[in-house]
Amino acid sequence: MHQRKIQHTSVSLTELGFGASVIGNLYRVTPAEDAAAAVDAAWEAGIRYFDTAPHYGLGLSERRLGAALRGRPRDEYVVSSKVGRLLVPNEEPRGVDTEGFVVRDDLRRRWDFSRDGVLRSIEDTLERTGLDRLDVVYLHDPDDHWRQAVEEAMPTLADLRDQGVIGAIGAGMNQSAMLARFLRESAADVVMLAGRYTLLDQSALDDVLPAARELGKSVVAVGVFNSGLLSRDRPAEGMKYDYQDAPPDLVARARAIAGVCAAHGTTLPAAAIAFPHTHPSIINVTLGMRNAEQVVRNVELHDRHIPEGLWDDLRAQGLVRSDVPAGHAGGRSSRCL
User: In CA terms, which of 11, 198, 324, 326 is 20 to 30 Å from 274?
Assistant: First the structure.
């Protein structure tokens, strides 16, 4: 699988990444054997970028990912995790986590973007994963913590990067405006952009993507299905958009996009995965993968040829913004290292 470098760093990511939130029992239980099989299938398919976080299953995702990667050549894969939520003992457990993961709540999350919090979080992650290092570290959802994140957390990560302890640093969020600020006002190399450059939402063209292009920095795209509405060939009522029931107008728009995809001999989910690559600053699309079957499907969708004319037609029909770059999503190999 082709790789692209995080600009100005030595870290390269495969163009498709493995998102490990779901193997932390996001929304429902994922059996341990399914989680291990998913990582095995990703490896067999050539995926070498794996993303996790303490938040995902109160550490379960990190433990499972570390166990599944154990024994594989460490220099052949890239792991990213995140800081900002420390896991601490829960003094008032109720039995099950309340933040979307089906796990016991013996631990709870505590926001902490201080220098000590960042160092402790990384140390805890290394212990849970059993890894000797993290290749990429993101600040995780610092929306309400800008000052501490930019004044303490990011300089701490920059020190670790400059010492060679970490390969690349950045921030990951569901909004794009603050990510643009991190690129412009901090030492961030890369940002993880969730759901803001998709077939249904191109708002990142207003801030973070111009910043990345101007500054020569990189973007990882996640949430490209917008919580599910773009994940099927024919969108249906009751599907999710950004964690909520999709409104009828968005369902209708997704169906219209699906129709244009079909006319070009492809499918809506294949186009949704390819679309972020139309922007030159986006070097990777990372998808959540719960089991081997999902891995096989996602890899197959990623590998499909997408005709360049699809993007032209979507722009012409007003289904995506007119300033969406023409891109080279149908020919990703031309941009590999």
Answer: 11
d(CA 120, CA 43): 30
Question: What integer is the mean pLDDT of 229-252?
Answer: 94
Is residue 56 part of the annotated active site? The answer reads yes
- Summarize the confidence of residues 138-160 as an average pLDDT: 98
pLDDT in tens, 88-145: 999 999 999 999 999 999 999 999 999 999 999 999 999 999 999 999 999 999 999 9
- Distance from C-alpha of 307 to C-alpha of 327, rounded to nearest angstrom: 11
Active-site position among 56, 138, 197, 241: 56
Q: Which amino acid is at 323?
A: D
Q: Convert 12-39 to b/e letters by CB count within 10 Å (16 or more is b).
A: bbbbbbbbbbbbbbbeeebeeebbbbbb
